[in-house]
Amino acid sequence: MDPFQHTQGCFFPRKEDPELLNEFQKQHFQVNHLHCFRLAVPKKGWFARPQRCTWTLLYFHGNGELASSTVLSHTHKSPVPSLATLFHFLSTFANCDVVLAEYSGYGGSTGSPSIPQVMEDANLVFQKVIESGRNAENVVVMGRSIGTVPVLSLLKRLGQRSHIIHFIFLHFIHSHITTQQLTYRIFPHFSYPNIGGAILTSSTASPITFIAKQINRVPTEHSASFEDLVDYAATHYPCLDAIETLRNANQSILMIHTVDDQIFPFQSITNLYSRIHPTHATSQQTAVTSGTCYSQQECSCRLVVFESGGHNYIFEMNWAEYSRQVLEFVSRFHEKGVQFERYLECAR
């Protein structure tokens, strides 16, 4: 029996207020049993056609949070912008469809969360994005805290096995849907050549260790020893090996963390980054406003560290520089680029 099927203790799901679900019905984005949300590229003027959406940001929220609460936070008057402010800016000014994924058992979604179920949820939402007409190369996945687990799952699967499948379909299939859409419908467990990039914020450096400790925190009849759980995960869930998953990823990676993260210590993230790029000495730093950026030009992975914000308020405490780093990371998907100054005007 798979011990990771019984990882409900790792999650803190909560249901959404039905009135809020009705209030944001226009942003509702149903994916099977998952009650997700979508911030679509808006129209320009009363009778204008919608702008052409060129890419998608797929966001996986943290534990104890909801996709709908991220949408709702944009409507609250606050002196400090929220993450939703950044998402609404991307959908309004950067031709981006922002999809906020939900997990089983969270919000208006049915079912119960577990590690394999969350990975399957991510797979379902990603499939829906592709079937809506988006190419994988124009999708950026972003996860916060526990939301980095589905991101790692997608990174591990994408770009590994589908090259031959795509070659066959490109030569022998002609259809009104894209090759990627057709591949996914017939071979849903095969992957795409690549995705546009991935953003991991407030993430754990060792998901296997963290999850194994959480499982043993509440012993059940299905409990196993810590060592057995780690061995089982290494065999059946290799994506949870963050070092190998990120080291072998073909995508550009942006990691964001704080020095005072109480849940996932800063030192563990710097150790993870140094093991992803063993030739890169973390002493080589480039100062940025309100934070420190560890990177070098030939690296596909970049680590940005802030001094304050803790685990849950990293965006609110560093919203301007946090947003600038994200906008810079995704700017290649927008034909005219994303003007940071314009974002600051909108945010304030």
What does it look like?
This protein is of the alpha/beta class. Helix content is 38%, strand content 15%. It has a ten-stranded mixed β-sheet, sandwiched between helices. Helix 8 (207-217) crosses helix 9. The chain is globular and about 55 Å long.
Assembly type: single chain
Structural class: alpha/beta
Portion of residues within helices: 25-40%
Q: Largest beta sheet, briefly?
A: 10 strands, mixed
What does the average pLDDT come to? Answer: 78
Strand order of the largest sheet: 1-2-4-3-5-6-7-10-9-8
Tell me how many strands there are.
10
Low-pLDDT ranges: 45-50, 161-177, 182-191, 281-289
User: CA-to-CA gap between the ends?
Assistant: 53 Å
Coarse morphology: globular
**Beta-strand percentage?**
5-15%
Q: SSE order, as H and E?
A: HEEEHHEHEHHHEHHHEHEEEHHH
Radius of gyration, rounded? 20 Å
Number of helices: 14
